[in-house]
Specification:
The complex is a heterotrimer of chains A (about 210), B (about 280) and C (about 375). Chain A is mainly alpha-helical. Chain A has eight helices and no strands. Chain A is extended, with a radius of gyration of 26 Å. The chains are: A mainly alpha (about 210), B alpha/beta (about 280), C alpha/beta (about 375).
């Protein structure tokens, strides 16, 4: 039963949603709306499970004084403080929660994002070696694109930016589309296997 | 460890330090490198430049603070262009996290041109139900946004002389960092109501937008900070603004950063070939 | 003479007025089209009158460049009449009143027949190969080095006594890449259960977290090691993208896993994760269908599954004949698409010639709306 019910549900919903795509009737649209609402509701409940997971994990770490448990204290305190501030003073445009979002979340997110510049440099330095003919070709292409994308490149040769754009919009695009075709077919095949119950890995791999 | 081996294994910290230095120096003293203005940037600039005075320009903030370094300078540059040309600017967005940015941009640029809120420009904020909002604006702006972001009713905003739809808006620009974004506007606003669309995107996703340019669904494209800097250059050249050009300055940093990465890659390869020959 | 002058200088009315229920929609919509006038007009007005009403109401004003209007403020089943008025300054010219028309919702989107045909054909192809595989026919599957390395990676972690870190991507459960990733997670979990290696699975999406938890629990039970399963090692972190990346980086630096798996949907954080992993000296196996992030993974990881290889992983690792069969079907599907691309391009080129205009009908069949 524990296996049959999810499989049956998956099959029925899969077939219904596939049919929905071909039916423009309002009944079919309201069915879609209903499903979207259900997804939202389930997500909200899942979030509660997620919060439980975070709390339990860090509570355990603090209790056992495991590793750098001080960070767990920071996590729990931040979680509680944010939740309380949201609950007490609301979530509107001029709320304290918004203040936390713009003054803590946003700068921290931007900091993580900016690390990319440093990591790109170190990853490129470590990995870009002209080991084979293909790698050499890639290296040359990357130099053209990197130069063509900045004013220094234009200062070297005005044709560089045109060449860079050509590389991006023709060979790069062709390769991307090739991968996309494979991905699209893979998506259909995987969906079909899940709907038909052939692929059950998501149920824990029991076949 | 031989010299060649050392050259191939420069400590990560030195690389990071080098990057930090080349990014910071141009921010302190700009190099003012000016590149060639790309065709796509020129197309977008021209599309806005050719709009008659007092026409509506819709700008949508479909990005969040994480893509701010690339897209926000585009927003400022387009706003300056629009205000200089006396266009009536409507700003909205499909990302709730972009609301603050939309408002900040208007508050920064509008005073430079003595523009009055409600008469020359309006901020509609964000509304849930992405597709419904985009489709709704095609039927009735008043029904979709009965009030602006600050709660002022549609009828009390002098910028709207009647209940407008896409048919009254000759051009729009979607500054987009993903989905929903310019593709959403193409799918719902353009295919159904025929509005002309220009887009501003991050450099990494610019290649995805090329097919839309080729098919004519997009009129002009700003791809990354480079395009933002080009737009700033065009604005300044046309005498629309003398304001600080954030993207141009950041482009100097980017130019040098690219150069450093290339030098590092070359050093890595020199070491690789030297060691291979030895073996 | 005056009549004659009037005849020459009066604005001509719009002709060929055609009204019909908008096809393939949810109802409440009527489409009106007309022949554009050759002379310049300022705009067209569309007027509507419902059955039993006396006056026409203005329902739309269109620029002179347009010749079609969709009226979506009508009631299904009610009969309407339309007329179009050409306006040029003070001059107005009314078309004839249209035939009666009423709107209704449709039960089948005929404009999506091509999609239906494609889906049926492709599904049939897959089912055929799955059926063949069921009959025990051996199918060849090429080597995917990234997946061959899974066993070695788990073994290495066991030898070193270090954990394995599995990132199921940052996508939601609605992303097929996430589901494919969870399928691989099941296989990896079976191996870690057998070798008694610690498996850490930090999650970004709460639903994915619950599914990942169950997948691992089931995998441990299936290989007869439910006692070795540690629920606290499969956990939720946060749904904020970069906060998640920071937390995972922290885990990498502190726990120093021997192997990192990055499977599923990734965005800008891909390189932040992979490069941190590289600094800790872990073996890294990545797989994603996010084309933008592939270069980052290829640069910073030891093995990368590109696009559909991620979907094939579950079949490859489990060697389940039914799953392998579906891979074969996919390959033939790709062959068909390649063929259609070539033929379609030829048709498109030829259709530009007047004698091959009929090719446009075929091309139109393949366009999706």
């Amino acid at each position: 039963m524990a296996r049959t019910l999810p499989l049956a549900l998956c099959f029925i919903m899969g077939v219904l949603m596939a049919c929905q795509f071909f039916i423009p009737h309002p009944l079919s649209q309201s069915f879609l709306d209903l499903i979207i609402k259900w997804v939202r509701i389930i997500s909200a409940f899942a979030l509660a499970l997620g919060v439980r997971s975070v709390t339990l994990r860090h509570y355990e770490r603090i209790k056992r004084r495991k590793g750098e448990w001080g960070f767990s204290v920071v996590t729990i305190v931040s979680l509680l403080a944010t939740a309380l501030i949201g609950l007490i003073w609301g979530v509107g445009a001029k709320s304290y929660l918004r203040l936390i979002f713009s003054n803590i979340m946003v700068p921290l997110g931007a900091t993580m994002f900016s690390i990319l510049a440093f990591y790109m440099a170190s990853a490129a330095y470590r990995a870009f070696r002209a080991r084979t003919k293909e790698a050499t070709l890639l290296l040359i292409a990357s130099f053209i694109v990197m130069l063509g994308m900045v004013p220094i490149g234009t200062a070297i040769s005005p044709r560089l930016s045109d060449l860079a754009e050509w590389l991006l919009s023709v060979p790069n695009m062709a390769a991307k589309r090739g991968i996309m075709f494979g991905v699209a077919l893979g998506v259909i095949a995987t969906s079909l296997k899940i709907i038909l119950g052939i692929e059950r890995g998501w149920l824990g791999g029991r076949r | 460890m031989s010299f060649w081996e050392k050259l191939g294994k420069i400590d990560r910290k030195i690389i990071f330090l080098l990057m930090a230095v080349v990014i910071i120096i141009p921010l302190l003293s700009p190099l003012n490198l000016v590149g060639k203005v790309g065709r796509r940037t020129q197309e977008l600039f021209r599309a806005i430049d050719n709009l008659p005075e007092n026409s509506y320009l819709l700008i949508t903030i479909d990005f969040d603070p994480q893509s701010m370094p690339e897209l926000y300078p585009m927003y400022l540059a387009i706003l300056r262009h629009a205000f200089a040309k006396n266009l009536r600017v409507i700003v909205t967005g499909l990302w709730v996290t972009g609301v603050g940015l939309g408002e900040d941009g208007l508050k920064t640029v509008a005073p430079e041109y003595n523009k009055v809120y409600g008469r020359d420009y309006v901020f509609l904020g964000w509304k849930p139900g992405i597709t419904a909002v985009v489709l709704g604006m095609g039927r009735s702006m008043k029904e979709t946004f009965p009030t602006d972001y600050y709660g002022t009713s549609y009828d009390s905003l002098p910028i709207f002389t009647k209940d407008i739809t896409y048919r009254d808006i000759p051009f729009m620009v979607s500054l987009s960092a993903g989905v929903p974004g310019y593709e959403t506007w193409i799918a719902y606003a353009q295919s159904r109501f025929g509005i002309r669309i220009g887009a501003g995107v991050t450099a990494v996703s610019a290649a995805d937008a090329y097919p839309y340019l080729q098919s004519g669904q997009l009129t002009g494209l700003l791809g990354g900070m480079k395009a933002a800097a080009e737009y700033e250059f065009l604005n300044e050249k046309a005498g629309f603004t003398k304001a600080f050009k954030p993207a141009s300055q950041l482009m100097d940093s980017q130019s040098l950063a690219h150069l450093v990465i290339m030098i590092l890659v070359i050093i890595g390869n020199i070491s690789y070939f030297a060691l291979r020959r030895k073996r | 003479m005056v009549y004659l002058l009037l005849f020459f200088f009066t604005l001509a009315p719009p002709t060929s007025l055609c009204v019909f229920d908008t096809p393939n929609d949810a109802g409440k919509s009527i489409t009106i089209s007309w022949q554009k006038l050759e002379e310049e007009v300022s705009c067209y007005e569309v007027w509507r009158r419902g059955e039993g009403e006396t006056d026409f109401q203005l329902c739309g004003i269109l620029p002179a460049t347009e010749c079609q209007f969709v009226d979506d403020k009508v009631i299904d089943g009610k009969v309407y009449y339309y007329k179009v008025v050409a306006v040029k300054g003070e001059e107005r010219a009314e078309s004839e009143i249209s035939n009666p028309v009423k709107s209704s919702p449709q039960w089948f989107a005929t404009n999506r027949i091509n999609v239906l045909v494609g889906v049926i054909f492709f599904s049939a192809l897959l089912l055929y190969f799955i059926y063949h595989a069921r009959k025990g026919k051996k199918l060849f599957i090429r080597r995917i080095s990234g997946l061959d390395a899974v066993e070695e990676a788990v073994g290495r972690a066991t030898e070193m006594g270090k954990p394995i870190l599995y990132i199921p991507g940052l996508g939601s459960i609605a992303d097929i890449a996430t589901i494919a990733s969870l399928n691989i997670l099941g296989e990896v979990a079976k191996k870690t259960a057998q070798y008694e290696t610690t498996l850490l699975v930090p999650n970004r999406d709460p639903i994915v977290y619950t599914v990942a938890y169950e997948v691992c629990k089931e995998a441990y039970t299936n290989v007869g090691r439910p006692d070795a399963f540690k629920g606290e090692n499969i956990f939720f972190i946060t749904d904020a993208q970069f906060a998640y990346a920071a937390a995972v980086d922290g885990i990498m630096v502190r726990e120093k896993p021997a192997t990192n798996f990055f499977m599923g949907m990734f965005w800008a954080e891909s390189l932040i994760l992979a490069e941190t992993g590289a600094t800790t000296g872990a073996i890294q196996i990545a797989g994603t269908d996010a084309v933008h992030q592939l270069p980052f993974f290829i640069t910073a990881c030891d093995y990368t599954l590109i696009g559909e290889e991620l979907y094939a992983a579950s079949a490859y690792l489990s060697k389940e004949p039914l799953l392998v069969g579906s891979l074969k079907g996919q390959d033939y599907g790709k062959l068909v698409i390649l063929f259609l691309l070539l033929v379609g391009s030829c048709f498109l080129l030829l259709s530009a010639l007047p004698q091959f205009r009929f090719f446009q009908v075929i091309i139109r069949f393949f366009s999706v709306s």
